[in-house]
Amino acid sequence: MIQKKLNVMGMVNDNEFEYKKVYTKEQRLEKYEKVIKHTGEERILVVLERHRKAKIQKQNDKLSQFQLFAINKNKTLVELMQYVKQNAGIDVSTSIFLYCNNQLLMMKSDISVGTLYETYQNKEDNHLYLKYADFETFG
């Protein structure tokens, strides 16, 4: 099963996203439709937010609470991690962890962003919601 292959572990208690509070379901769907219209099916929309318990500091405090970006489905999880650091303004030498649906994602070089999307996409608005933190948050 895909979830086993992703090697997902750990539970955290932070699955609320500011992005969903700012934009209605219709606005979020409209954003998704625009991305598909301009890039085709090869890209997905990712919403990235800082985990509420994370102590990590952004290099640029002017960045909003969330970042929205489109990424190619063929990218690996390792490439996604690099992209996340760049978009969140996190120093490249800082170790971070990614969470999806309250689960810690283990970085495996053979897993694509497309596989992650197929497993965890939000069915309501077709976005992939991720949290990042500088520590493992269990419990």
Automatic annotation (TrEMBL):
Residue stretches spanning the membrane: none
Name of the protein in its database record: Autophagy-related protein
UniProt keyword Lipoprotein present: yes
UniProt keyword list: Autophagy, Lipoprotein
Organism: Paramecium octaurelia
Lipid-linked residues (Phosphatidylserine amidated glycine): G139
GO biological process annotation, one example: autophagy
Pfam families, A to Z: ATG8
